[in-house]
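Q: Convert this sequence to structure tokens.
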Amino acid sequence: MAEEEYSEEHKQHLCYMVARKGLLMEDNLKTLKKMVSKANFVCETCGRAANKAESLCHPIKL
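A:
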């Protein structure tokens, strides 16, 4: 799927940000901390965890 085919909503998902944008902890620690602290959900596709369901593509409650 081409970059422009992703919805703006999907571009806010942790999965997308890490895979497509190369979001690295050392460069964006504040952003990542905010998204993953006290994680309540896990993406059933990639296994990433986040505190809000809307931060993941296919969230399931922990």
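The chain has a mean pLDDT of 80.
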